[in-house]
Amino acid sequence: MSTPILFIGLPAILGFALFFIRNRQKLTLTISMSLLGVLCVLAFFHNFGQILKIGPLSIDLGTTFTIFGRDFILANSDRLFLTLTCLTSLFWLGGLKQAGLNTNFVPYQMAIMASLTAALAVDPFIYSAIFMEIAVLLSIPMLVHSGKSLSRGVLRFLIFQSISMPLILLGGWLIAGSQASPSDLQQLGIAAFFLATGFALWLAVFPFHSWVPLLSEDIHPYISGFLLTVFPQVALLVIVDLTSSVTWIMASEYFGEILLLVGTLMMVFTVVWMLFEKNSKRLFGFLVLFETSYLLLLLGMQTPVTLQVFYLTQFPRFLALLLACFCLSVLLDSGSTGLDLKGSFQNFPIASIGLLIALFSITGMPPFGEFSFKFVLLDTIGSSGKIKAIWLILGFTGVLMPLFGLVLRIFSLSSSTIKVNEKISQIIIISIGIFLLLLLGLYPRGLLGLVDFMFQFLPLNT
Amino acid sequence: MTYWINTIPLAFILIGCLLFLTSSRKQTVFGSVIVIIAAGFSLSIQFSSLFPSLVRLVSSASAFFAIFLSMKESDIEFRAIPKNLGVLRIIAFVIFAILSILLGLKLTDVLQIPVEVAIGGLFSLFCGLLYLGISTTLSKLILAIMVFYTGFVLIFGVLESSILVNGLIAGVILLLGALGSYLIIREVMVERE
After folding, report:
1. B82-103 pLDDT tens trace
2. Closest to A173 (Cβ–Cβ): which among B159, B163, B186?
3. Do the chains contact at B111 and A174, CB–CB below 8 Å?
4. Do A147 and B175 touch (CB under 8 A)?
5. What is the chain A residue with the closest CA to B177?
6. ipTM of the complex
7. What are phi and psi of B41, to 5 degrees?
8. What angle (nearest 5°) sits at the alpha carbon of residue A314, between those of residues A46 and A221?
9. What residues are paired with A51 via a beta bridge?
10. What is the pLDDT of residues A56-82, one digit of tens each?
11. Residue A424 CB burial class (10 angstroms; 0-12, 13-18, ≥19)
């Protein structure tokens, strides 16, 4: 038995099996959530490579699975990622029914998670691109809504992600070849171009960003929330994997500078587009882009602290994004609220408050989840030049303007009576989300203490 | 060029791409794609192992066949292309073809692959890319992605001989074919509703 079999093979097989019983809603949900719960506990507590003891049973849990001469490795350095993806999936599945969706999506979700985990586990890293593409193709049936034509956003998502696979494969192949002779600058330049374009398509970096707001506008917010949470997350971790495995990239003085430049540009452009946006679904898409730009900036800083924050911030990030998409589902599925959410507080006060807290958490407002992590970036960016800091401050203040507009729209009441139309289960889910975001915001060291032991395995050295 | 005889499959790819871009007849479009795949296979088999080349050929042909069948069953036709637009597409492709030759010569040095593979792959790759840019219907977009992949696979297949990687790429192409068929049938059902 090995960790790749447990974390990739088992979810993939289960996803396939669940496809045939997907109409049995409770059973499908119970099985998938149980498996994810067990895997999450295993990733968090068990030291990979050691014998796993469950009562009288002893399982030798290896970290490598070899097939046709290629390795899939899930070692201790991947435990944080595994905990994160399992938690994301678990939380998403937990709110699936209350968000108004049925369990038909569960098999696809399991298969997507298996494919994305394989993307991070495969060695050499360049083959990640193939698994990412498989995950994209598996996600398309989730994006098709009954009785509706395939939307432009979905098509763009498919096109952009499909184009990225060849670029990353070719770039990765050249990088692997250049490890032997890093002096061939022409080859390195071409490899860097291919990889940069491929990653830009993955992460929806300007000018390849258009599919994100379109996708979030065209499909159910809970599905777009899941995809826009996990895809950039895995793509960024693959980038970290690549940079830590290719020494000359880490050593290059341009790498950090390029990431900082791309992150700053992405943040500024996103904020400019957001200023004119009133559609709450598109606003959510733009906030995902804003979040990605912030993560790129953290990576670009290349200090041990910012890299640590890069990993830590993934927790409040996924919580805030999932809470936002859940609240959006509650608000928009009712049919009584328009896409601009005008007056939504009157009929859905809890969901409206939950949405605002999640969105403000993403922007780094105190005292919510991401405040302390965004503060670290603002605190350290000054060392890399004053101009970047100015752009960043403009970005962080600019992103608040459309959100304040949203606050005004949400609270524009036509009468003084406020009705709570959310179901009890929805209120519980939203309350848990708000509580966790507040907890992470007020007590960030708690999270650090919880996952601190995992940092010794992560590539944090610059 | 490594073997001058390879100008023949290259010419086939070029003509296949032109027909693919300009024709609105279903049979011609799919016929041209099959010509591109077959010519690509004849190039690929000379410079890479037989088994991976065969796997790629079978998977690509199956995927296109699946889409063709679903379009035939659903009675879908491509919209007729006006003459002016056809001419514009030919001009665009000629520009891309020249670019392919120039880039192919460069790529030969960088990737250390035969020039006919580089040029053939780039012809198909750019054809797919061009088609992606100008098409709006679902069936055409899926076909465009697949033609794009056909070109890429021709180049990458010579570079990478791993069974797992070739198998996975073949899997991606098959998955794309299956997904394309499903989406095309679904689209027709939605329109009929």
Report:
1. 788 888 888 888 898 899 889 8
2. B159
3. yes
4. no
5. A137
6. 0.90
7. -65, -40
8. 115
9. A60
10. 788 888 888 888 878 898 988 889 889
11. exposed
